[in-house]
Amino acid sequence: MTRDTRSTWQRVLPLTVFALGLGGCSSVLVDDCGAPHAPVNLYSVTGDGAVTLLWTPVDPHRTAEFVVYRSRHLDGPYDVVGFTDADVFVDVSVHNGRTYFYSVSSVSPCGEESVPSHEVAYDTPRPEGLSAVMLDANGSGWRRSGWDFSRARAVPWDAVEADVIFLVDGGVPVVVAADRYTDLQDAGYTGFDEVDWAPAEGWSPTGSAEAIPGHAYVVWTNENHFAKFRVSRAGTGGMIFDWAYQIAEGNPELAPGQRTTLRAESDNSLLSGLALNTPEQAVGR
């Protein structure tokens, strides 16, 4: 791993404790100033334009702070993106749709730094929105009856950009895949954040599902992108929903809470051989 040229020794001065002795003052160095162990259980939480990292300290009493490293590639090089004295760090200097790899080290009060964490967290932030609205395709609001996830906007049901369509069929609110190359799946009653990964199978054979408040749905678009939405309200007039869209093509990650970690093969390096374990890509159309 390529380290930042700024040493953590320049950031933390050696700690000296002065103790009173019979003969006057004497300097006593702290005994546990050796390099602490690296943190464990590193994982990420996906956000909109942000990645939250969490981990478990191994030597909390010997750790003054943590150093967070980031790279666009598993095998580096890794650069310092921040320092924290907590066991959580939020990286907001990221772009939606790009995948980032992270490692964390521990630093003692004397400035000695541990090896990188055994786990390497990777994450792809993606946009999301709250309380979007689609209207009935069979009603006067048909110009807002389709939803384009890539542009986060309502469109007419017959627009080429539409990914899903809302309509009322026999008094039943229904959501429909906009074309035969788009797949749709009802994930049932669940929290929005709990839908964290697009499934590999189980797509609706008809490309449609009843729009039920409290249900979440996963969409596989005709451009090989994944999205999700959760219905808040649905009736004869329209549907209100929360949504998220993964702009990285073929990446099924949709969620906060997904533990996306790889295991480093040694304490001192993140080997390119781990590239076989990078995020799975969905099968193309």
How would you characterize this protein structure?
The chain is an all-beta fold. It has two domains: 8-126 and 256-277, Immunoglobulins (Immunoglobulin-like, Sandwich), CATH 2.60.40.10; 128-245. The protein is 0% helix and 41% strand. The chain has no helices and 20 strands. It has strands at 16-21, 24-29, 40-46, 51-56, 65-71, 79-84, 88-91, 100-107, 119-123, 128-135, 146-148, 153-155, 164-169, 172-177, 183-189, 208-210, 215-220, 226-234, 238-245, 261-263. The protein has a five-stranded antiparallel beta sheet with strand order 6-5-8-9-20, with no helix packed on it. It starts with 15 loop residues before the first strand and ends in a 22-residue tail after the last strand.
